[in-house]
Hints:
The complex is a heterodimer. By secondary structure, chain A is an all-beta fold. Chain A is 0% helix and 54% strand. Chain A has one domain: Sandwich (Immunoglobulin-like). Chain A is built from no helices and eleven strands. In chain A, the strands form two sheets. In chain A, strands 2, 4, 5, 9, 10 and 11 form a six-stranded mixed sheet that branches. Chain A has a five-stranded antiparallel sheet with strand order 1-3-8-7-6, with no helix packed on it. In chain A, a hairpin with a 2-residue loop joins strand 6 and strand 7. In chain A, 39% of the residues are buried. Chain B has a single domain, classed as Immunoglobulin-like (Sandwich). In chain B, the strands form two sheets. In chain B, strands 2, 4, 5, 8, 9 and 10 form a six-stranded mixed sheet that branches. In chain B, strands 1-3-7-6 form a four-stranded antiparallel sheet, with no helix packed on it. The radius of gyration of chain B is 13 Å and the shape is globular. The model of chain B has no long low-confidence stretch (mean pLDDT 93). Chains A and B meet through strand 5 and strand 10 of A and strand 5, strand 8 and strand 9 of B.
Amino acid sequence: GQQVMQIPQYQHVQEGEDFTTYCNSSTTLSNIQWYKQRPGGHPVFLIQLVKSGEVKKQKRLTFQFGEAKKNSSLHITATQTTDVGTYFCAGPRWGGYNKLIFGAGTRLAVHP
Amino acid sequence: GAGVSQSPSNKVTEKGKDVELRCDPISGHTALYWYRQRLGQGLEFLIYFQGNSAPDKSGLPSDRFSAERTGESVSTLTIQRTQQEDSAVYLCASSLGTGQETQYFGPGTRLLVL
């Protein structure tokens, strides 16, 4: 069945280091979304990418959608303790209209 | 408020009891979703409501789980004869329902089955 996979599952970095999480889909996606969940919190939408090869930036966060629209990445430059949390990617389910299939998430720990 | 609300925020129950979890979506959002998130795990899709269409129940793990939605408003997720493995955070999300758009999540209900 359709799968969305994320790697790594967990990463800890020193504050100031960069961080990247990768998302891979078993199927071509019409769009991909990224969410952040702080510890003890709920997922919060970060961004949606629609076009092949699209790159979007939010301050220190850079999101990229692959040319084949099957993979995506989130890169954080110079991590801060406020970046701590789990980052999920999500893509539409086949024939699912509004339904999303979420990756398992990458949990980021930042050590000061 | 303008966001998705859920109640109760925490629920502790004994094995075998029934529980009812409530979700109030954002006003005007026709699509509503329920997810389960076990500790340290990802989001497990449970059920999806879209307007007046028949709900997509493909994610419900057993017949002990059911959900209803009144029109395009409140939804309740019911778990009958709870088991310890039902312990998790149950998250509700809503979206406009016009396409593959952003989902807005509620704070979740933390369920602990003793």
